[in-house]
Structures are given as C-alpha cells and as structure tokens.
Design brief:
The complex is a heterodimer. Chain A is α/β, with parallel strands linked by helices. Chain A is built from eight helices and 22 strands. A seven-stranded mixed β-sheet of chain B has the order 3-2-1-4-5-7-6, sandwiched between helices. The chains are: A alpha/beta, B alpha/beta.
C-alpha cells in the first residue's frame, strides 16, 4: 500500500442546508478596487456602513471567517461622496481572476437569482469596464448560464453612496462552509451551458492531467509516469485546459470515475448531476477544504490520497507554486487502479 | 368548534390524521380562530376539498384556505391554485392574490425533496410571526418515502441540521447566519409533526440584572 487517505484538512467544510439570508442595508458606501493593486493586497475596497466598518455580509472571507484583504474599515467621509444613480442595487461580490476562485466565490452570491426577480443592477467589485469582465470567455459562459448579461451589472470607479443595497450572503465561503443551494445553482448553470447536448454515460474512468500545463499552482513533475500506467490500463487521459467549458462539464456528467492530481478542474463536478467517484492524488497529507466543500455540494464520493512513499517538493519552480516529484509513480497508478476495481 | 369536531363534521371526503395531532394543532392555532388569517395547504388533489373544509370550519368564517393543488372551483373561503413553488412568479402571484400566509400546513407527498423544497420556497413569503407545520414526518423512516434511520436526506434529517443552523450566531461563523436563523424563532419536533414558529430575534445578547 503506497497511498494513504489524507487526514489533514486545511479549513472547515460545513454543509449548510438552509439558504443564505439576504440583508437589506440603507445608505452604505461602495469603495472600488484600487487601480493597479492586486486584490490580495488591496485594503481599501468594500461595502461600508456609516460608521466606517465593513458590512460583514458583504465581505470576502476565507477560513474561519477571516478577511482575505484585511479591509475591515474605511476612512472615507460619507458626506464627501456622491450618491449612485440608481436607488437600489443588489451586491454581487468581488470578481476574482483565478478560475477556481471565480467558481467558488465570484458566483456564490448569485443563488438569489433562482428565488428573486432581477429588479435592480448587480453591483460588483472588479477592475476595468464591465464589457471587459466577460473576457476570459469562461466568465461569459458561466454568467450566461446564470442568465446574466453585461447590462445586468453595475460598478463604479470612484466611491459612491448607495441608498438601498440588498446583500445576498455568500452561498460558499472559501475553506469554511457551503450551502446546499450553491450546488443546486451550479447544476442549473451547468444545464444551461451544456444545453441539449446528449449525455452518453461512459464507464471508462477519466484522468485529468496537468502534464501539458506550463504554469499553475501545483504540479506533480513526474505525472507522466502515472499516466503511462493508467493509459495502458484503459483509462482515458484528458487535459482540461485544452477542453471547452461545456466539454469539461459533460465529462463529469458522463464519467462516473474521475482521477487526477489536485486541481480546480475537479471543481467542474459541481455542474454535474452525476455523483462522481473521485480519486485525487495529492503530493502531501494536506487538503484544502475547498475540495471538500465542492464534494459536499456536488454529493461526490471522493478519496484524497497521498503517497507515503515520499515526495520531493520545490516551491516556485518551473512555473508552479509547488512542484513535486513523487516516489514510485507507477506503483501509485497501479494502486489507484486497484482501488477503482 | 374543536379541530376534532371539525374533522368529524366533514362529509365531503376522507381525511386521515394521527389522533395526537389534534391537540398539538389546538395548542398553536387556537389564537387564530375567528380572526382573519390565511392558511396555505400543501396537499394532493383528492384530499384537498375535505381538508380545506375542516380547516375552514375550525378557523372560522374569517379565514382563507388556499390549497396549493389542482382542484375544484373556488368557494367562499377556499381557493385552489396549482403551480411550481420553485417559480418565484408563482409565489409572488400567491402573495399578491391572498397576502402572505399566517399558517402553512404541508400534508402533501411526504417525499423529502418535495417537503424540503416547499419549506424553503415558502420560507420567504410566510408572515414574520407565522407557523409552518409538516405532517407525517415519520415517513423519514419508511423506505417507500426514501427514508431510513439516520438518512440525512429526509425531512427529519434536514430538521436535525436545522437545529444547528438556528444556532448559527453561536458557532463562531462555522455556520453563517442563514435564512433559517434569521427568520425562525423556534422549532418543535413532535412524533410525526414538525412545527416552526417564525419571528426575528432583534437582540441576542446575554444580559444581567446588575
């Protein structure tokens, strides 16, 4: 036995059955992203109440409700700020560049669209003009799946006062919790993206490979040795970064068993009605709980496995934040096959 | 007229209720008798007329019973409206036509997905001090209703999770404030019957007398 089940989970993974709440706030301050500053370092932006404090339900949190950007207060004087043109807006949260974070955080307030009429502009934090938000194209496809177009959004380049702001609380907070409704929303978005394309159930396991990727967060450098064994055993190899969004979603709808190394490509299971069997290889005994949150919302049966045979790790190497070389990659592949069978 | 008297007086169709439900309903609904109130009744079509009559007789002449099912012609106190509660427009139409319900009673399919979905959808329109009843929750243990002991997908499995979610403010944000914690003050779990009392806690502080 080379592989062990991961026991160290980084973050919480609570499933909340009831819906998030919607809060109504009056006379609040919208402060945009700071131009030229990366979100992680921008302490200025947010939705603030008259006392200068960030409105909790509007915040971008991670882990045990810790503010990602430390933007807990503002010094801006309300009286110096003009009112926004519309009386009422609905807060949509920050639009985050990273694909995985866009899925789990930037879409997470849109659950309200399934239950309430879209009567007012959706106010978001983002850089650039609204039409530019729709590039990269996956955003356009996902928002279209949520029945949103550019004209539904609003933002401001300078601070404004909002007379009435409805704030749907987030349905997924990174490394903390997910509401059932997040999964339901994402499956409906997936339905609309895939459209009438027929589902062909396929019992052949699929492997999501990173072997062609040249940069990213994590990579197992000798992954190709794992792939060779799996391919010889009949597993089909896919490179998600080369696939269209509908094809990635369809893959999870058609294949019961999905194998791979840790990647936000696994988050695509959230768009699938099929409760997937996932075998995910990790370089170490540490799992970001975002994967567990997705599993709970998608009702996946996932196994996260790491090789006890050892891993050589290199930070910020060859285009990846964490680049690992696992011992006995062929043995790892054979054990995965054994577990599947 | 007691609820049991109303039950026995209906001759238009069969009604089946557990005996102990009558006294539980009396405990919660007595204050609504002979006052204007709106009751939404989730029920299958064959049983709608008789149950609606029972509730109309019990609650009195000022009540309005809205059966969320196909059915018969509207009568003085009784209306029938069929639609998908998932559809916000249908819910909005119900509220425009009848007002927000004071009381919801779910004696519908008893299938967990239907029961949970109705509860979540009507959560957003029930009055702030309203009451929501779910009948026959022992079906959570019956296989032909997708139930079994310990099954989390049933209405009782759901209710067990709601106990934690009602206490969201005390969980250190592991459970966020949610539509249940913000709109429901209490839940009562009886053998076969769930009762939710709606209302908002405006202040949850712990205070001392000096």
């Amino acid at each position: 036995m080379i592989l062990r089940d991961v026991t160290t989970i980084w973050g919480n993974d609570h499933l909340v059955r009831s819906r998030p709440s919607i809060e109504e706030h009056f006379d609040v301050l919208f402060v945009p992203f700071t131009v030229g500053v990366h979100l992680d370092h921008d302490r200025q932006w947010g939705i603030f109440s008259r006392d200068g404090r960030l409105i909790d339900s509007s915040g971008y949190f991670r882990g045990q409700h810790a503010l990602v950007c430390g933007n807990s207060t503002t010094d801006i004087n309300f009286d110096d700020v003009p009112y926004a043109p519309e009386h009422h807006y609905i807060y949509g949260g920050p639009i985050i560049n990273h694909f995985g974070h866009f899925l789990i955080s930037s879409l997470s307030r849109l659950w309200f669209l399934e239950f309430h009429e879209k009567t007012s502009p959706i106010l978001c934090h983002s850089h650039g003009a609204i039409p530019d938000w729709f590039n990269p194209s996956y955003r356009a496809e996902l928002w279209k799946g949520a029945k949103l177009e550019a004209q539904d959004f609003a933002t401001f380049e300078t601070p404004v006062r909002i007379r009435h702001l409805s704030i749907p609380r987030t349905s997924l907070e990174e490394q903390n919790f997910v509401h059932d409704v997040y999964g339901r929303m994402m499956r409906k978005i997936g339905d609309r993206i895939v459209g009438q394309k027929p589902i062909h159930s396929n019992t052949t396991p699929a492997y999501l490979s990173k072997h062609q990727m040249r940069n990213g967060v994590t990579k197992i450098g000798n992954e190709e040795e794992i792939i060779d064994v799996l391919r010889d055993a009949g597993v089909e190899i896919f490179c998600p970064e080369t696939m269209s969004l509908p094809d990635q979603i369809s893959l999870f709808r058609e294949r019961q068993t999905i194998i791979g190394t840790s990647s936000s490509a696994f988050h695509m299971s959230i768009f699938s009605e099929l409760e997937n069997d996932i075998f995910c290889i990790l370089p170490t005994n540490l799992l970001n709980s975002n994967f567990k949150l997705i599993d709970k919302a998608a009702k996946n049966k996932s196994r996260y496995l790491f090789p006890k045979s050892g891993t050589e790790q290199h930070e910020n190497t060859l285009g990846f934040n964490l680049y690992s070389i696992v011992s006995d990659p062929k043995g790892i592949a054979r054990e995965i096959l054994s577990r599947i069978s | 007229m007691s609820l049991y008297d109303a039950f026995t007086s209906v001759k238009s169709g069969e009604i089946e209720k557990n005996v102990h439900f009558f006294s539980i309903y009396e405990r919660y609904l007595a204050s609504y008798k002979d006052r204007p109130c709106v009751l939404f009744l989730i029920i299958d079509e064959p049983h709608a007329q008789a149950q609606a009559e029972m509730w109309a007789r019990y609650l009195g002449a000022f009540s309005k019973i809205v059966c969320l099912t196909n059915g018969y012609k509207d009568q003085d106190q009784i209306a029938f409206r069929a639609g998908n509660l998932d559809n916000p427009l249908f819910r909005k139409q119900l509220v425009i036509e009848f007002g927000a319900p004071d009381i919801v009673i779910d004696d519908g399919s008893h299938l967990p997905e239907d029961t949970i979905s109705s509860f979540e959808n009507l959560n957003s329109i029930i009055k702030n001090n309203g009451l929501y009843f779910i009948e026959d929750t022992y079906t959570s243990y019956w296989r032909n209703y997708k139930g079994s002991l310990g099954e989390s997908g049933t209405i009782l499995g759901y209710a067990k999770d709601l106990i934690d979610e009602m206490h969201a403010h005390h969980t250190g944000q592991v459970i966020p404030p949610n539509s249940f914690s913000e709109n429901v003050q209490s839940m009562h779990i009886y053998d076969g019957l769930l009762v939710f009392e709606y209302g908002r806690y405006l202040d949850r502080r712990s205070v001392k007398n000096f």
